[in-house]
Amino acid sequence: MVNAAPVLFWLRRDLRLTDNRGLFEALNSGHKVQLLFIFDTDITDELPADDHRISLIYDQLKLLHEAVKPYNSSLLVKYGRPAEVFREVFERLKPAAVYTNEDYEPYAVERDEHIAQLCDEYSIGFEKFKDQVIVHPRDVLKKDGKPYTVFTPWSKKWFAAFDAERLSIYHSEQHLQQLAPGNYELPKLDAMGFQYNPREIQTEFPASGLLKNYDDQRNFPAVPGTSRLSAALRFGFISIRKLAKHAAAYGTFLNELAWREFYMMIIYYFPHVVSKSFKPQYDNIRWRNNEDEFARWCQGSTGYPIVDAGMRELNQSGYMHNRVRMITASFLTKHLLIDWRWGEAYFAQKLTDYELASNNGGWQWAAGSGCDAAPYFRVFNPELQTKKFDPRFSYIKKWVPEYDTFNYVKPIVDHKFARERALNTYKSALKKA
């Protein structure tokens, strides 16, 4: 028997109909289910009109909208502040509950608490489920109940908790007949103030050959040795559970998934890292913050080919190879002594796969200020990194074709000088702590 009042399933970072935990629970609640997505203006108001991630989300919503038509249903897509949207929807649909999947970022946690309070005001249930991680942040803690701050001991417990054979798959796609009838139309992008700027991403799971060679090839940016699935995971186009099952036999690849969840755990328990160093003493660093040098770094004109190749790849494609992310981040924070927050914000603006926890964790790792970070005296030598990971200059030639001509810019700073300056600056800051 189906209850008359529908429930809402609030789509966020889980834009798929298959193996969607929260959707599965909603479809099995005994109620008809109305799918809801909100273009949250608290987020979108900070984005440029041509932000390609908005188009990426919009295209996926169109696919989902078409996929539910055979069930005489449709997506309800709204644009506005979540609380205002929910008040309007509550008044119109009188739902019995809101179902959604958990998000661990500080803004999302605060937003969900606010919506839960709003649901209480309307006597509406609010149900959240674990979906974007294999192991919940609360399920991997030290014996004293406190969160880990070092990856290795945390990962041992994470891997101990991971069991591919027992990992549940939630076949939400088998229950779509429970979707509520409706014929809503999607809002137009331009009506929300955005321009269509499409970008393709990888959604197919990596072949066994790539996974087998992942450990050997993942650090070479000219080689197609990574899955390129970070954007699909970020927006939930694919299931983390299915991916983990698919890659269960390949420890190095699984370790990368573990790092993703480690940083989610860190930002969940230590939300101050969004704007401050994980290690407070690193906020004593006297950054140079030279705006002209920052602009050259952003443009990919530092005179260091591997750095410039990475920044040009980012600017043109919305992607940057992970090894090169580490090199460019180290260069900005150590060679140029520019605040890691500047670089993190630039990556946040440009990366298709931008995800706050991983981006923040990566930048603080490079700057030395994060949990389990590279020591401050570790300063990547771009030339040595090139010799090791792009020895034939294949990656560099693709993105910086003029690198070996007279037209290429001279280095913005001497490596030896920059390294000594960084070490002295860091030492001085840490002595004050």
Automatic annotation (TrEMBL):
Q: What class of enzyme is it?
A: lyase
A Pfam family recorded for this sequence: DNA_photolyase
**Which keywords are on file for this protein?**
Chromophore, FAD, Flavoprotein, Lyase
What GO biological process term is on the record, naming one? Answer: nucleobase-containing compound metabolic process
Task: Pinpoint the site Electron transfer via tryptophanyl radical.
Answer: W287, W340, W363
Q: Where is the Photolyase/cryptochrome alpha/beta domain?
A: 5-134
Q: How the cofactor binds, per note?
A: Binds 1 FAD per subunit.
Query: What is the required cofactor set for this protein?
Result: (6R)-5,10-methylene-5,6,7,8-tetrahydrofolate; FAD
What InterPro entries has UniProt attached to this entry?
Answer: Crypto/Photolyase_FAD-like_sf, Crypto/Photolyase_N_sf, Cryptochr/Photolyase_FAD-bd, Cryptochrome/DNA_photolyase_1, DNA_photolyase_1_CS_C, DNA_photolyase_N, Rossmann-like_a/b/a_fold
Keyword Repeat assigned to the entry: answer is no
Which residues participate in FAD binding?
214, 226-230, 253, 256-263
Q: EC number(s) on record?
A: 4.1.99.3
* Keyword presence, Transcription: no
Q: Which GO terms describe its molecular function?
A: deoxyribodipyrimidine photo-lyase activity; DNA binding; FAD binding
> Which protein family is named in the record?
Belongs to the DNA photolyase family.
Specify the protein name: Deoxyribodipyrimidine photo-lyase
Gene responsible for this protein: phrA
